[in-house]
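User: Teach me something about this protein's shape.
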Amino acid sequence: MKISTINVFKRCALAAIVIASTAFAADSGGPAPPFTLTDIAGQPGTLSQYKGQVVMVNFWATWCGPCQQEMPLLDQMYKKYKPAGFTLIGVNVDKEAPAVKELLARKPVSFPVLLDPANQVSKAYHVDEMPSSVIGPQGSDSLYPSRLQAGR
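Assistant: First, the predicted structure itself:
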């Protein structure tokens, strides 16, 4: 019974992420600020490389409990919708990469995770709370707040 309740909760949370991310697309904030960051292996990743896809950028931190809780759900969503042209980019705001590497070793994800230790990208996207997500439909010219920020 308890396992069933947890599975229902997980499915509801995943559905809420997808629905909320698309339902608020009308709140256009204009063109998405371009960015280039590196992943934990030091390889560059840019927003522009995903042009033509639905892109969700999720800002998170290792010290954020809700961020860690949503990562498996986000990974499920990414795997399910990637064949349809959906991309999820995790942007970590920790100051140091070792904590990020350690967390991803314990809780691996299949979506790309980029590092923003100077918080340049999170500031450009006006991210004040963790976790926060923005999404853009068919092309990454515009990204919109998903209203999934903590405390809302």
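Now, about its shape. Residues 12 and 27 are 23 Å apart (CA to CA). Confidence is low (pLDDT under 50) at residues 12-28, 145-152. If you'd like, I can walk through any region in more detail.
User: That's plenty for now, thanks!
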